[in-house]
Write a structure and sequence with these properties.
Blueprint (H helix, E strand, L loop, with lengths): L1 H53 L6 H4 L13 E5 L3 H17 L4 E6 L2 H10 L5 E4 L5 H11 L3 E5 L5 H9 L4 E6 L3 H7 L3 H9 L3 E4 L2 H9 L7 E3 L14 H10 L8 E7 L4 H14 L4 E6 L5 H10 L4 E3 L14 E3 L6 H4 L5 E4 L12 H5 L4 E3 L7 H9 L3 E3 L3 H12 L2 H17 L3 H13 L9
Parallel strand pairs: 1-2, 1-4, 2-3, 4-5, 5-6, 6-7, 8-9, 8-12, 9-11, 10-11, 12-13, 13-14
Helix pairs in contact: 1-8, 3-4, 3-18, 5-6, 6-8, 11-16
Amino acid sequence: MRGSRHRRQLGDRRAFGARYGGRRLTSTLAFYTYNLLLLALSPVGAAYLGWRTATGKQPGWAERLGYVPVDQTPGSPRIWLHAVSAGEVAAAAPLLRELLAKAPDARVYLSTITSTGRQMVASACGGAAGSFYFPLDTPGAARRALSRVRPDVIALVEGDVWPNFVHQASLQGVPVVIVNGRVSDRGYRRARYIRPFLSWALRSVRWLGAQTELDAERLVSLGAPRHAVTVVGNTKFDANLCPLPPTEVSALRSQLGIEPGAPVLVAGSTRPGEEEQLLRAYKKLLAEFPNLRLVIAPRHVERTTEIESLLKDAGCRSVRRSSGAVQPGGGNAPVVILDTMGELASVFAVATVAFVGGSLVPIGGHNILQPIAQGKPVMFGPHVNSIRGVAAAVVDAGVGFMVADGDELASRASELLADPVRLDALETACIELMERNRGAAARYADAVLRAATNGRMPLNA
């Protein structure tokens, strides 16, 4: 009997070793294959990045090679937050605030990949000790950047995991954690094709905090150790977006040239292919609400001239926010193009109803919590795979409305604009939704600080 049990246990161990040892070997081989591919493609990559730098499309060339500018002012712990672009920076801002509240002497550095993200750091993350472009994922660039920043911990916002960077951090004894982790539908489909690369990197991450149960399951299926993954929530509910006082709302309306009492549709983070649908909806709504004003905030302000042409072709007069041609008090063009950085979150306060773009076209959706934080019901299209959890939450709360196209947007907006009593109730529901979901940023901050201080703070506090 004892011999039979011993053979069975030995067989179980061998099966376990064959299964998990094989996975480890596969992902290790994948890591070396990844670097061989990088080496083979490096001449093409260097030429491409050189061209982007020469044309002004790729700033921060030296930083991408790891020569990051870092202020060496003393402070502890030293924390490196990485946020790919504007959306991730918005998620990082509440975490930064909590980190500095819990550890006032900390030095927190932010890296981004896009110029839009870098610009947003300046406006949204004032407490950061510095910012720079994330290094290319080569051993040399990662090693140089790490030696300059000298972090006690690295927190990857929403899970931008790069194999060589994580490996170099591991070699230097720097713990890596993922905060506000999410895996979009499109990202998950793509990630399965490079699972061996991701699996190797994810196994080197000490702790992974996910926004939702689905995000957690997807991280595990891509190779993250199940014991290291925890569902924590979404830091964007903790964004410092308190409703503007009525006096400030009135002043902002006047600055935008919107007369008192006029209803306003604010369309934020719009993308190509959405403005055309938005303008058709706006013209339909004008037949019912002739004093309706429209504020369009393109996701990329360099598209302002293009949007002006669209408006002109549609027969709509417009004015740029930055032009100085907006006259306080009203009497201006009915459409304002918000071509400034960092104002959109506040401008949603002047809205009667709101729309957030990147959702009528297959982008994945943008930050629909900005209007919600100002007490405004929000409409968005069906392409919300990047904000799936938040979209479900606002729809379930009755303050978010998915629309299929511009026609449905016009119909839903008309329904809301015609019912002031309902709008008042929705304002209250929006604020309650934000309050119910706050707290994730503080929990993530505890996890980051525990990793930075070798467990002297409770992880999941």
